[in-house]
Design brief:
alpha+beta; five-stranded antiparallel β-sheet
Length: 116
């Protein structure tokens, strides 16, 4: 845990990062539009990305030093589909995501399309 403090990560982030036993989606917005997203996979405290695998649809899978997949970076959140994310997860030997796992991205994309 000392490494997290050395990196300047605040108490809120340390608490959030201490329980990374499940999968979850984090979305970054700018002016109300998603500009990036990250689908976290189960990880151990202190895991960092040691290598990446670039896939289709702007998806980049991060791997820990021991080869475990620890997350999928979604570089084009408005273009991601459940099928494209599941292709990346399958390539990393991970179970597929459910529609509910990325619903905020898909709902946002639908609203943007409806507004055109």
């Amino acid at each position: 845990m000392a490494a997290l403090v050395d990196l300047g990560i605040g108490a809120f982030d340390r608490a959030r990062m201490s329980d990374m036993s499940g999968r979850y989606l984090e979305i970054t917005y700018r002016h109300g539009k998603p500009v990036a997203a990250y689908f976290y996979l189960p990880r151990q405290p202190g895991d960092i990305s040691a290598c990446t695998a670039i896939g289709d649809s702007g998806l980049v899978t991060d791997f820990a030093a021991d080869g475990r997949p620890i997350g999928v970076e979604i570089t084009s959140p408005s273009a991601v589909t459940l099928a494209s994310l599941n292709t990346a997860l399958s390539a990393a030997n991970q179970p597929p995501a459910a529609l509910d796992d990325i619903a905020p991205l898909l709902i946002g994309a639908k609203h943007r399309a409806d507004a055109r």
